Amino acid sequence: KERATEHPLYHVLHDQPNRRQTSFQFREMMMGHAALRGNAYAQIVPGPRGFADQLVPLHPDRVRPETTEGGDLRYRYLLPNGGIRFFPQEQIFHISTLSDDGIEGLSLITLARDSLGLARATEEYGSRFFGQGARPRGLLKHPSKLSPESRNNLKESIGENFSGLKQSHGTMILEEGMEWTQIGLNNEDSQFLETRQFSVTEIARWFRIPPHMIGDLTRSTFSNIEEESLNFSRFTMAPWFVRWEQAILKDLILQDDEEVFAEFLMDAFLRGT
Predict the structure, then answer these.
(1) Contact call for residues 59 and 40 (beta carbons, < 8 A)
(2) Which residues contact 35 (CB under 8 A, 6 or more apart)?
């Protein structure tokens, strides 16, 4: 095998696919679209470097593949001004994930919406918990009945002096025979920390990311991280590489160019330590 550096597609794929982006920026954007939404689209624009002189990304939320009456595939694109433009299959570079119709990939956001929703709700709860820290961790008992005015004054005093992270550990001075009774509800009891930990692992599982690669070293050891990194290359990245390589072969390489193909070099990934 030899690198086809003189081929028109080499510069498009390896260096600069369009006027606005480098190759890395283009691949990063397309991977974000494919990983989250199941589809990544780019318009194939002809020019001096051949029929694929530029690859211009199209946001997947604005693109819908559809089949014409004659059985051909075309892509409906919603323009920013509200108009509609149709692209034939020959003008679209399309990377898709698991599909149930053979055309459009399934969105991971849709498939994992319950897991992602739980993680978002947990983070929102944590933000409110620490931002509004005057939660009932105990009860105040008074030997007599408080008037509405006294009750409001007490409530305002607690809110002003003990609400929020900075004042959450202040000392409360009780008067008029008032007593404080602790109630045993805390973060551990409500499994808040465990829920956050589970959300991190669950999202990593959806993307096939080893936990140690997102900073979760709970179950990691010196001996298994290397193997996990190799598994990441083989079982997570390798399928993505195949998707890219076969999409390039299908959409960007002409049929009479049989000796040319695209390939990601994985030598550095598989080198281990």
Answers:
(1) no
(2) 97, 108, 207
